[in-house]
Amino acid sequence: MKLIIAIIQPSKFSEVRDELYKVEVNLITVSEVLGHGRQKGFSEVYRGVKEMGNLLKKIRLEIAVNENFVEPTIKAIVKGAKTGETGDGKIFVLDLKECVRIRTEERNGVAIG
User: Fold this and answer.
1) What is the total count of domains within the chain?
2) How far apart are CA 7 and CA 11, in angstroms?
3) What integer pLDDT is reported at residue 12 of this predicted model?
């Protein structure tokens, strides 16, 4: 079991979600987050004064998958999120030690679905 965490542009969320649905990955958690990578944020003019925003709006996806869904999930995220420009995002793949479905108390791969 793996936990896939992806940080993507908010404008690409619909495309990523659609690509995930195509590979039958339907269980995702979505959060709106702030952060920046190499581009170190941005600057904007507000009421005539230049301000550094430094933190950009991003979408964080958390997806628990069984081993056979790891590569399809990664490929779907890349396909939906990639623009080729700086700031497309990152994907992190972590080992998932245990998963428990609260309702039925099923564990691990069965609990993920």
Assistant:
1) 1
2) 12
3) 96
89 with 58: CB under 8 angstroms? yes
The Cα angle at residue 80 between residues 93 and 28, in degrees rounded to 5: 50
CA distances from 30 to 38, 45, 108 (A): 23, 30, 21
Q: Name the one residue in this structure whose structure tokens are 């700031």.
A: 87
What number is the average pLDDT over the span 80-101?
94
CATH code at 19? Answer: 3.30.70.120
Q: What is the mean pLDDT of the chain?
A: 89
* Domain boundaries, position 42: 2-112
Compare 49 and 18 and report the one with higher pLDDT: 18
Alpha-carbon span 46 to 96, nearest angstrom: 44
